[in-house]
């Protein structure tokens, strides 16, 4: 274990991590934790992993499970609509349930399906950029007017959700992601529950409507497969539709906004980079999904540290992405690092199903905006939402200057 003059104890760093100031800028705290080794044990039942190799090992360790219904039934969270729904999706299922749910819907996000969406994304991004010319010379918030609208439009196209409904669902989608934060008091789930109630109601209605009047969209095919094969229950079908709405909109919107912010802060790096390398470095430098949680299904050893059955393991992906044993000068934003394989989409059997779609939206979003507004500038300091697990900008105020 090494220490530096600035090192703070793990309890202090962790105590600060989930406060508003820690969430605003968690990176010095990750660094402080890293000084204490790749894995830190805070008592017998709580472990934090922040090393790149330790997080990678944890994600492929079969003894470390996602927090499924059996875990949440002991915490009281299953009484809450947010977690009633989340525990019916693949992301929070283990074993055969996970395999069954992933097999049921993975076709919708396979490489051919996603590649086929390129021109749709380009059209939507161009339409939104043209719409933004109405703000030329005035400040505009690109989270409100570009990144969230782009991901809503793409997911809306896949599932046949009209624009007016997309905008009506936007805050409910954002609210559900607050339920991913560590909960110290179950009342903190109120916003997540309220958002989830709206989304479950909407997607249950959408499923019924596609059952009655089939269309050429992903929702119709999922409803048909569920009814024809019986491999998922009707609750799991609705939960799956809700998940694809949340995952399809919020994290990609956070990535797009974060990518535009970095292009404005680092114009020389953006000019010199290709969009793919630039987005990869944004994913490493400031990941939208900063923390994953696992629970030990049996005794395991992580980076030499024994982890007892039942212990919670918090995987600090964003810290792992800045591990100096993996990346030279990890706090420097430098596209075209080699290798540059951040853990921001996870790793192993729960690897993100939408990684390719999210990357494509960020690459196209940035290049389209830069093409229409090459002299765009940051208007104000962008503000992050008060969340760490699902990190993203609340606002991205810019001033647009058309070419
Ligand atoms: C920048 C955007 C995104 C980020 C940062 C992100 C991040 C992640 C991460 C870290 C995981 C692993 C969860 C775990 O191991 O516990 C994951 C899983 C998943 N993601 Fe994404 N995601 C993004 C976009 C998307 C999109 C666009 C979709 C689809 C519409 C999607 C669907 C999923 C699904 C279904 C899983 C669960 C896979 C499984 O459990 O087998 N994600 N995502």
TrEMBL record:
Keyword Disulfide bond tagged: no
Coiled-coil portions: none
Gene3D superfamilies in the cross-refs: Cytochrome P450
Keywords from the UniProt entry: Heme, Iron, Metal-binding, Monooxygenase, Oxidoreductase
Species this chain originates from: Amycolatopsis pithecellobii
Example GO molecular function: iron ion binding
InterPro entries: Cyt_P450, Cyt_P450_B, Cyt_P450_CS, Cyt_P450_sf
Protein name per the record: Cytochrome P450
Top-level taxonomic group: Bacteria
Protein family per UniProt: Belongs to the cytochrome P450 family.
One Pfam family matching this protein: p450
Signal peptide as annotated in the record: none
Classification via SUPFAM superfamilies: Cytochrome P450
């Amino acid at each position: 274990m090494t220490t530096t003059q600035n090192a703070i104890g793990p309890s202090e760093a962790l105590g600060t991590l989930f406060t508003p100031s820690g969430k605003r800028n968690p990176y010095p705290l990750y660094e402080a934790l890293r000084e204490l080794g790749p894995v830190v044990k805070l008592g017998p039942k709580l472990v934090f992993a922040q090393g790149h190799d330790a997080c990678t090992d944890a994600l492929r360790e079969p003894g470390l499970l996602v927090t499924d219904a059996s875990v949440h039934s002991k915490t009281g969270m299953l009484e809450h609509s947010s977690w009633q729904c989340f525990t019916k999706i693949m992301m929070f299922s283990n074993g055969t349930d996970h395999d069954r749910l992933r097999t049921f819907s993975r076709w919708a996000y396979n490489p051919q399906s996603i590649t086929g969406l390129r021109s749709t994304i380009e059209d939507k991004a161009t339409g939104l950029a043209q719409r933004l010319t109405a703000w030329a010379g005035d400040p505009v918030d690109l989270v409100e007017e570009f990144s969230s609208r782009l991901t809503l439009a793409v997911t809306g196209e896949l599932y046949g959700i009209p624009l007016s409904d997309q905008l009506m669902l936007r805050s409910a989608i954002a609210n559900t992601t607050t339920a991913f934060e560590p909960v110290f008091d179950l009342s903190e789930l109120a916003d997540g529950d309220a958002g989830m109630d709206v989304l479950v109601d909407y997607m249950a209605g959408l499923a019924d409507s596609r059952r009655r009047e089939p269309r050429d969209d992903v929702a119709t095919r999922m409803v048909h497969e569920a009814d024809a094969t019986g491999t998922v229950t009707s609750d799991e079908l609705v939960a799956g539709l809700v998940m694809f709405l949340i995952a399809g909109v919020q994290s990609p919107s956070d990535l797009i906004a974060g990518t535009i912010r970095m292009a404005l802060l680092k114009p020389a790096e953006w000019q010199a980079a290709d969009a793919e390398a630039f987005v990869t470095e944004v994913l490493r430098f400031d990941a939208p999904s900063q923390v994953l949680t696992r629970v030990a299904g049996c005794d395991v050893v992580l980076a030499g540290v024994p982890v007892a059955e039942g212990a919670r393991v918090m995987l600090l992906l964003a810290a792992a992405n800045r591990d100096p044993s993996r990346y030279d000068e990890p706090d420097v934003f430098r596209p075209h690092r080699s290798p540059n394989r951040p853990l921001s989409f996870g790793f192993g059997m729960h690897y993100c199903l939408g990684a390719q779609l999210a990357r494509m939206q960020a690459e196209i979003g940035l290049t389209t905006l830069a093409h229409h507004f090459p002299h765009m500038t940051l208007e104000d300091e962008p503000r992050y939402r008060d969340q760490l697990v699902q990190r993203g900008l609340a606002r991205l105020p810019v001033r647009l200057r058309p070419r």
